[in-house]
Each structure stands twice: as structure tokens, then as C-alpha cells.
Amino acid sequence: MATGLKIKTAAELRTNYLRREMFPTIFCDGCGLGNVLNYTLWAIDEVGLDLDRTVFVSGIGCSSRLPGYINADGLHATHGRALAFASGIRAANPDLTVIVFTGDGDGAGIGGNHLLHTIRRNMDVTVILVNNFTYGMTGGQSAPTTPDGGFSSTTPYGNIEHPLDICELAKALGAPYVARWPVVSPAQPVKSIAEGIRKRGFALIEMLTPCPTAYGRRNGLKEIEQIWRWYREHTVLLDEWEWVEQFGSPEEREALRGKLKIGVFQDTERETFEDRWAALVAREKL
Amino acid sequence: MSTHRELIRRALGPRVQFVQGDDACAYGAVLAGCTFFAGYPITPATEVAERMAEILPRIGGCYIQMEDEIASMGALVGASWTGAKVMTSTSGPGFSLMQENLGYAIMTETPCVVVNVQRSGPSTGQPTMGAYGDMMQARWGTHGDHEIIMLCPASVQEVLEITIVAFNLAERLRTPVLVFIDGELGHMRERLVIPDDDEFELVERPRATDRASYRPFAPGPDLVPPFAPFGSGFRTFVTGLTHNEEGLPRASSAAVHDQLVRRLAAKITNHLDLITRYEEFYADDCEIAIVAYGITARTCRDVVEEARRRGIKAGLLRLISIWPFPEHIVARWAERVRAMLVPEMNLGQIVHPIREAVAGRCVVKPYARIGGELHTPAELLEALEALQWQPA
Amino acid sequence: MKREIRICGFGGQGVITAAVILGKAAAVHDGLTACQVQSYGPEARGGAARAEVIIADQPIGYPGIHLADVLVAMSQEAYNRYGRAIKPGAMVIIDPDLVFQHDEARPVTPVRATKIAEGLGNTVVANIVMLGAVAALTRVVSPEALLAATLESVPARFRELNRRALEAGMQVAGVPVLAQ
After folding, report:
1. Which B residues in the span 280-309 are in contact with C, Cβ-Cβ below 8 Å?
2. Nearest by CB: B78 against A87, A95, A285
3. Could you tell me the pTM of the whole model?
4. Which residues from A are below 8 Å from B79, CB to CB?
5. At CA B138, angle to CA B134 and CA B142, rounded to 5?
6. Domain-embedded: residue B207
7. What is the DSSP letter of C82?
8. Contacting residues of B for A72, CB less than 8 Å apart
9. How many CB pairs under 8 A join A and B?
């Protein structure tokens, strides 16, 4: 592995980073959120973040419960508004590291406008957006990311809306770091989360995460092993995707339909709100 | 190197100015120690944001214009948790959007000041006209049981002074405090004398000192828990869910919810002595009283003087703090007067708690005026005279 | 003493600025009480704008003006709209090049503020010319206070122009020029 990632045991992570009184978690069997939490903690460990100086912010939903399990400052905000709260923290105290956990509904549905503007300002926050294609906590309603034709309790006849590609949006808005990975393997997510934290500016890591309970069972992915396998089979690395698009046979190209592109989509530099504000203050302060 | 207080003085400019209510609000905030403002432009509150955008960088603070008022209120809470004194300003439509995160600030005991320069509603209504139509929204706008503090100044000078008071109460009691003015007062210019630092009190939120014994939402005897800002190593978990004294979610517990929400309410209502503010004119021999607040109260003062000249034993109770409602003050007046005239720039909102406080002890006569124009002295005098002959 | 002054014109002409300067002169420099309010529509330019100043030597309660003691009109539309609500015997000052019809059965004082401002090289100071005339005619604020308030309200590079505008206005009204 390129990162030289040191795999941590759950016990090691638990002692150092978790709020023991919060366990057990509320997550269902087969849910990927525990993995997202693990990967994040590995990344934090690798970066060497001081948890006394790190704030975990979230909105509402299953993924937004994650800050509660981490033994650090946490702000479990209102539905969709995590980035607004996070922006306030960063703007008022740029010395703090801010990591946001949000979901597809929270971050890109009700919070879509905040996502857009937080990227536009380039607030230096790392956003781990857990996409499970559904509103899991409320029992599996359609989300902005629900695939075309996907079944949910509010699309009982199949989803007729076009799903949102959150990474494409973030990329178009100029987010300095944009990546998408499925939770099914740890290496790339951990590396990306670490890169996101190190990135000066807005970093979005979209984690494709199974929800067997609310989404899987309505879409033929009820068995845990089956739904986890689906993520391996339906994700294609960016390089490979582009190669197939360019050089692939019609059959290979056809096979991309219904699959999801994964990888690091953007890794650039851009001045942050905080740096620009500091420069403005340096210029204008009496 | 000048001190922060000296910087503030320099940023505010001359000691005596001729400025708008909105300007005075921004000045008051800065004097109170506000270093963070998040907002969204809206008539007639925009000038508050404009002044903050000018002043804050000059004193090393931060102004951020958010994408809407939902985000403004969210950013405010985030910033307050870093330990900053924070404010936002808006008008009716924006105040509606703020309700969600205002409730969050109440639930999480986040000090903040929210200014509403009211305009006529419902909806977009009359953007440039003054009104007091959000008085009840202030009380019950966010969902769930709660108490709120709301202050209504009546002059440009008082806007500055009350804004400082609002910050002090917000910090002292760890709760949002609302400053409500209206488009008329917000855009009215009067002489403003910027007070010296020794002319007003500055209050800081109670701070947690011992990490080992720290329980984020365990209150002291005054029901206010000591505060530990993010980044101080105390590792606080903040949630809008019902939480225990450790701050951890206990959303299914009736007992925890009951204890928390009752404490949040009692934290406010136990401190009426800190909060309640009013002014009385001719309280001793008053027969016909006007009970008024905000800009309308200015006119009432003139009207009472004129009524006295005409031999009517009129008086004025000017409410400055509206929520929690100063029931005991109004009740005391109800013991003494035959009738109360309640002029409001709405269709009758504060007249309801007034009636509740009066409990039938005197006549209560609302006088509604909407559309953006103020009650004129002549029409109020007429209403006062008419009340004289009203049977008790 | 309580004088209620209404200044009206079209948006962009600076009637609000004029009222603010007048109020500032009274409240900040003459030690009087002043209260200034305005009404405006959604248009930033054009339309009819109105600004009112109350100047008194006692606290001001009701901040509105029912009937004005002094009316200053700088456009026909504004005159038609805001010119009626004045006290019997009120002083009415108009720019005769912009207010053509005034069927009032009372004396009207013409001040060719826009024309004079043009002569000074910039019509933008018509409001300041008018202000000079108003102050001189009504004596509601001292010339020194008005000058001080004007100069601190305009950008440095326009100070000289505004000083000349103020003096020109005062002169029209037959009041001696300010001491240099």
C-alpha cells in the first residue's frame, strides 16, 4: 500500500479516540458507518491531529451521529446545517481543525445550498459525506442520490428523479479536494481522509456506504454480504472508467451504466476564506 | 500597541454622532465585545450588517455573509462555541428562517444576540415600513417549550444601550437574547453619545475551570452551566437532542427531558430581576394608563403629557423587556388604574399577556395600527380621552 | 422650540443627505435635539423621496411630522405628493426650475439651487446649496454647525465644492458669507 498505512486494532482506536459511554452505537448490522468512523480515526492518527483542538460537526441523520462517539469537541447540529455551524467555528477560530460528518440527504438535500456556498468560500473543513442513497434514520425515503428507478418508502413505484452526483458538483464549484470511495476497503478512504484533513481548504470525501435496512431490502440487496459485494461490483476506478470511455468496446462502455466512478477527482490549491480574511484583517486592522 | 478596547473606540469614531438605530445597534454590539457577526442582507436591517462588516475587520473580528438566515444562525452558534461574543441581524422573513437554529441555541445554551428590525408581514409584506408584528413569533417562533429574552428599545441611544444589555444577558444566562426594533427606529437618526467603558457593565459567560470535574450541562446554583469553548481541551459534545448533564443524547428519557427543559425555562424565569426593564411615568396617581413598547412608546410619552395638561390623570408604563413578560409589573398597574390603552403596531399581540396579567382588574383597550405608519399623537389622545368615559 | 422640516425631491437628488446634515448640525454641533426620518420606495434613483427632520431643544417623542413648519421641495412630483401637509404660515422653499406649479395661496421662497450648483460646476451639490438657504432663512441651526456637519459628511476631495455650495445658498438667502 502506497501510504504505508498501519492498520489499527479496534481496541487501540477505542482507547485513544472514543467516548466509551456512548457505546453501543445505534447502527444496524451491515451498516458501513462503523467503518467510516474507523477510517476517520485511522486517518486522524496518521495525520497526528490533536483531538483537543479538533471539532467534529454534523447535521441530522445516521451519519451525523458519528461525532457523538468520538472523544473530542462535537457539535451535532440541525438537519442540513452542519456546514453553516462548521463555517462559524472556522471563521471565529481558524486554529481549530473541523471535520464534518454528513449524509447524502443532510449534506446534499436539505443542506445542498450550504454545501455549495461553503465550497465557494473555500472554508477549510474536511467533509466526510456518507452516501447511502436514502434517508436511513427515518426509515428509507428517497434522497437526492437515490438511483434512477430505486425503490424507497416514498418512491414505491421506483424513483423518477435524476440522482445528484455530489462529487461532480463539488468539483465544478472548485473544491480543492474531492474524492469518492466505497467503504468496502479501508486503504483508499483512510488515505483520502488524511489528505483531506491535510488539505488547506475544502475537502469532500464521499463514502459510498451500504444501508441494508432501509435501502438494501427494498432494492434486492437485503443480505449483508450481498450488499457489500454490490459496492465492489458497481464501483469503477476513475482511471479505468476513463480508459473504458476512451478506448473500451461498446460492451465495456455499456457495462459502465449503473456503476459509480470512484477515486480522487480533484486535488488542487485555492486560497481559503480564513486565509483571505486574515489577510484582510492584517490590511485593515487599526 | 493599543488595547482591544482602544481599537474599538477608534473604530467607532467620534463620541457624539448623528446615526441610525441600526448603526447604534452595531456600535452597541462592538462595545459589548462582539467579535463575530454572521448575517444576510435584508431591509430594513441591512445597515446593522454593513456597520459590522466595516468595523469588525478593523478590530480583528470576523464578519461573514452567509447564504441565508438559516446559515447565519448556524454560523452564529458555531462561532459562539469557540468562545466569541456573536450577533446576527435580520427582519421578519429572515427571522422566520432563523427559528430552527434559534431553538438549537436555546437547547444548547449558546449565548448569542439576534436583532430583528421588524417590517410588516406576513411574508414579504412592506419591506421599508416599520411594524411590531413579530412579537409573538419571538415568543413562540421556534418549536417546543422554551423561554426567550426579548428587549425593545425606543430611541437610537437606547438601541446602543440595550444591545449591550442583550449581550450581557446572553452571556450571563447562556441563552439567545432578542433585540427587537422596527424599520422606523432602525432607519431613524438621532444623536448618539458613545458611552465610556466605565459607564456600562460588561459580562462574560461563566467559564468551566476544572477539566476533571467538568460536566458540560451540569448547572450551578443559578441553573447556568459553566462554559468550555471548543479547543480548550474540555471535549464537549453539543447536541440539540435531549441530553443529560454530560451532554450525551438521552432522547427517549422522559425524566431527562423534563429535567432539562424545565431547567432551561427556569434559568430564564428565575432571573427576572436581571432581565426585567421598564419605565414608568405618573405611576402614582394614574387613572388611565398607556402600556406601550418600542417606537410607539415615544409618542405615548408626549400624549400622556398632553393629556395631563387637559386634566386627565394619564400615565405610561413603557415596557423595555417584553419576554419573559413582566407580568408582576403590569399586575401592579392593574391594581391602580381604571383602564389601560395598549397601542401596538400589529393587530394586537402584547395585549394578550397584558390581559392575562390584568386578569379583569381594569379595562384593557387595544389600539392596533398596521401599514407602516406610527400612531399619531392626536389619535392616541383621542383614544385616551374616550377611555375616560368607559365604564369600569 | 420645535421646528419640523420636510425636504423632498426626486431620488438621487440628495434630499436625505441634506436632512441628515441638517440634523447632524443641530444634534452634534449645536447641542440641540434632532430626529431625522425618511421614506423611500424600492427605486434607488428617481421617484419621490422625502426626508424629515425635527429640531428641538427638548426630547422628541413622536418622530413623525404631521404638518411641517418648513417645506423644501426640489421636484414637482415630490411637491405634489408631500407639499400639502404643512402648517398654516409654514415656510415653503422651492427650486423654481424644478417646481413649476405651486397653487399655494401663500408666499413661496424660490431658491434656484440646481442652477446655482450648475454655476459651481456640479449639480450634485444642489442639495447643499438648498441646505445653506434653508439654514439662513430659518435660522434653525447655526452657520458654523451646518458647515461643520457638511464638511464631515462629504469625501475630502469634495469639501471645497460643498463649502462653496453652502455659502452660495446662504448668500441667496441674504445671509452673510461664512467667515473663512
Report:
1. 295, 298-303
2. A87
3. 0.96
4. 88-89, 91-93
5. 120
6. no
7. H
8. 235
9. 153
Measuring CA to CA, how many Å separate B126 from each of B42, B181, B349?
A: 12, 15, 19
Largest CA distance in chain B: 69
Partner-chain residue, chosen from A76, A95, A284, that has the shortest CB–CB distance to B57: A284
C15 near C50, Cβ under 8 Å?
yes
Q: Is residue B308 part of a domain?
A: yes
Q: How far apart are CA A38 and CA A28, in angstroms?
A: 16
Q: Nearest to residue B52, comparing CAs of B68, B66, B65?
A: B65
Domain C2-111+143-158: give its CATH superfamily.
Pyruvate-ferredoxin oxidoreductase, PFOR, domain III (3.40.920.10)
Domain extent at residue B366: 279-388
pLDDT tens across the length of chain C (180 residues): 999 999 999 988 999 999 999 999 999 999 999 999 987 666 666 788 899 999 999 999 999 998 999 999 999 999 999 998 999 989 999 999 999 887 767 778 999 999 999 999 999 999 999 999 999 999 999 999 999 999 999 999 999 999 999 999 999 876 544 433
Does B35 reside within a domain? yes
CATH, residue B334: 3.40.50.920
Domain contains B332: yes
Q: Which three cell numbers stand for residue A274?
A: 480564513
- Integer-rounded Cα Rg, in Å, for chain A is 19
**Closest residue of C to B379, CA-based?**
C66
Q: How far is A76 from chain B (nearest CA, A)?
A: 5
Best of C20, C62, C87, C146 to substitute, by most chain B Cβ atoms within 10 angstroms, is C62
- Residues from chain A that touch B64, judged by Cβ atoms under 8 A, are 87-88, 91, 273
CATH class label, A10-284: alpha beta
Chain B positions in Cβ-Cβ contact with residue C42 (cut-off 8 Å): 127-128
Distance CA C56, CA A249 (A): 88
Q: Which chain B residue has the Cα nearest residue C149?
A: B18
Residue among B10, B40, B64 with most chain A CBs within 10 A, to mutate = B64
How many folded domains does chain B comprise? 2
Domain extent listing, chain C = 2-111+143-158
What does the alpha-carbon distance between residue A94 and residue A273 come to, in Å, rounded to a whole number? 10
CA distance C149 to chain B (A): 10
In angstroms, the separation between the Cα of residue B136 and the nearest Cα of chain C is 25
Q: Are residues B164 and B309 in the same domain?
A: no
Q: Residue B15 corresponds to which cell in the numbers above?
A: 463620541
ipTM: 0.97
